[in-house]
Specification:
The complex is a heterodimer. By secondary structure, chain A is mainly alpha-helical. Chain A has seven helices and two strands. A two-stranded antiparallel sheet of chain A has the order 1-2. In chain A, helix 1 crosses helix 3. Chain B folds into two domains: 143 residues, Aspartate Aminotransferase, domain 1, CATH 3.90.1150.10; 245 residues, Type I PLP-dependent aspartate aminotransferase-like (Major domain) (Aspartate Aminotransferase, domain 2, 3-Layer(aba) Sandwich). Helix content of chain B is 39%, strand content 16%.
């Protein structure tokens, strides 16, 4: 399995293939549309991420020492962002998640093109994922 | 049917393409596409005449106003006061003493809220607003109510986005001290029956403040004909710079009302035992004003006066009607705000499509629209929606732009649904 840092680098390289923002937008939409569906029983209010302008649900499933996240959003674009994030953080140990270097968001120009409220939403999603990792790592201790 | 909705270009009375040439920003490309600017309700673009006037001010007569005997200060002061006369004529006020420069509509409403409360309100009094107000016509009143133990009453709106006039009549009683309402709703486009509202209010001796932010750029304003007591608007939505706005108030009110900010310019004499305030309008204008903004406002008014406004208004009506009809014919699109009289905006949602996703999609085509709650969260709550897409026009927009916007919207829906 590749390291988080390697995948972070790969995402940046993938996006370098697209010169223009519209192409990047379409790529993110495509990823969003391919995101695995979330089982409906997990799509409940208590799994909603606070601080997002769109509705976002995240449910962490524990698989041994690793975490598997089920995610969904009413925004295809946000699902695309989640798909990118999950390339890094899906099926990882809490330590890997907590120490994950996440540089792609800045490097692919997301911040420049999404509204500040949306950028805050992405930060809230990352926080939530790290929070789940922290909770599991505390349990393991 | 679509064609009938639109005026043939030889019957327009003016050429949008010619006026459009006055707006340098509109010639640029965004995301490798010609910019299509449909966010005019947020702010209008500026003609070169306004941009040049600002530049000319800094190049040739920048000085502080009302303070110096020197040449530049006199020139700046004269220009500053000339604009006040222009504003007076623009809205047909009785006197330039009724024209107070502010930083914008928000500041104008805050000024009235604070000054009116300090001068006239007592515990238990009521202020009446509507459910369709912008946050800037809600929050200042909430703050006043907290401070002065007064109450804020809200007139509900109908499903069409029109004011519920029955409830409005019922809401008025002897405790009602001021009615503050928008002329045109920024998120629904509803044009309120201002004259009727003012008439009803005056029958009960209640003054009315009209938030004219969305009205001034789409229709001519005559405050005397409206008989409105206070009228607030922003320069930047009518082609002037940002940070300049106007508060019109009838002299009979303003002369009684207390200033809310102290400082230079607003005083007659200052001593440590007694300070006397300046005359109108200066008592409400403490500190060095936004001179550049005022100059830009004057240039914007000159521009408005140079164009055929009745033709422009007619053109905008047709353009908006065309856009709204085109939008509502798209499968899954629902217009939010379907009042019988609308102005400037088409606010809509699309079933199964996130409005932010679609707004971003349109941006990839160089099309600028607004997404979100438009600072009217109670309106969004009323319709039980998180937000809308809002496309808003001004006379420099063309039918071709609307067609491209509609076509991109259809493609976006197809992709995102």
């Amino acid at each position: 399995m590749k390291s988080v840092a390697e995948i972070d680098r790969e995402i940046v390289e993938d996006f370098e293939l697209f010169d223009q923002w519209p192409d990047r937008y379409h790529y993110i939409i495509e990823l969003g549309q391919k995101l695995d569906p979330m089982p409906p029983e997990y799509k409940v209010d208590q799994n909603k991420v606070k601080g997002c302008q769109s509705s976002v649900w995240i449910f962490p499933e524990r698989k041994g020492e690793r975490l598997f996240f089920h995610c969904d959003s009413d925004s295809v674009f946000v699902k695309g962002e989640i798909a990118l994030l999950m390339k890094l953080l899906q099926n990882r140990t809490p330590d890997e998640i907590l120490n994950a270097p996440i540089h792609f968001i800045e490097e692919i120009g997301l911040q420049k093109h999404i509204a500040p409220t949306r950028a805050n939403g992405l930060v809230a999603i990352i926080k939530q994922v790290k929070y789940y990792a922290l909770a599991l790592s505390a349990k393991n201790d | 049917m679509e064609k009938e909705l639109f005026i043939p270009s030889d019957q327009l009375g003016f050429d949008p393409a010619v006026l459009r040439n006055d707006f340098p920003i509109l010639t640029q490309e965004v995301n490798q596409r010609p910019l299509i600017y449909l966010d005019n309700a947020a702010t209008s673009q500026k003609p070169k005449q306004v941009i040049d006037a600002i530049s000319q001010y800094y190049k040739t007569y920048n000085a502080n106003v009302h303070r110096g005997v020197h040449f530049l200060s006199q020139e700046a002061s004269a220009a500053f006061e000339d604009v006040r006369v222009k504003v007076k004529n623009f809205i047909n006020a009785q006197s330039e003493q009724e024209i107070i420069y502010t930083s914008g509509t928000t500041a104008s409403i805050n000024l009235i809220a604070k000054s009116f409360a300090q001068t006239f309100l007592k515990e238990g009094d009521e202020i009446l607003i509507s459910e369709m107000e912008h946050h800037s016509n809600i929050v200042p009143w909430q703050m006043i109510c907290e401070q002065f133990n007064t109450r804020l009453k809200v007139i509900p709106i109908l499903d069409s986005g029109e004011l519920n006039m029955e409830k409005f009549k019922e809401s008025i009683h002897e405790k009602t001290k001021l009615i503050s309402i928008c002329y045109v709703s920024n998120s629904l486009g509803t044009v309120n029956a201002a004259e009727k509202i003012i008439d009803l209010a005056h029958q009960n001796n209640i003054p009315v403040l009209l938030d004219g932010a969305q009205a001034v750029c789409h229709q001519r304003i005559d405050v005397q004909q409206l008989d409105v007591d206070f009228f607030a608007f922003s320069g930047h939505k009518m082609m002037a710079g940002t940070g300049i706005g106007v508060l019109y108030g009838k002299k009979k009110w303003l002369s009684e009302m207390k200033p809310i900010e102290g400082g230079g310019e607003m005083i007659k004499n200052v001593s440590f035992t007694e300070t006397t305030y300046n005359d109108l309008p200066f008592k409400f204008e403490a500190g060095t004003p936004n001179i550049e903004g005022v100059i830009s406002l004057g240039a914007a008014i000159d521009y408005w006066n140079s164009i055929n406004r009745s033709a422009v208004e007619q053109y905008e009506d047709y353009l908006l009607n065309y856009m709204r009809n085109q939008l509502s014919s798209i499968d899954g699109v629902r217009l939010i705000g379907t009042a019988s009289k609308v102005s400037g905006v088409a606010s809509f949602i699309v079933e199964g499509v996130n409005h932010l996703d679609l707004g971003m999609y349109l941006d990839t085509f160089g099309i600028a629209v607004r997404t979100g709650h438009h600072c009217t969260e109670p309106v969004m709550d009323r319709f039980n929606i998180p937000g809308t897409l809002r496309a808003s026009i001004l006379f420099y927009n063309t039918k071709e732009e609307i067609d491209q916007f509609i076509s991109a919207t259809k493609q976006g829906i197809k992709l995102l649904r």
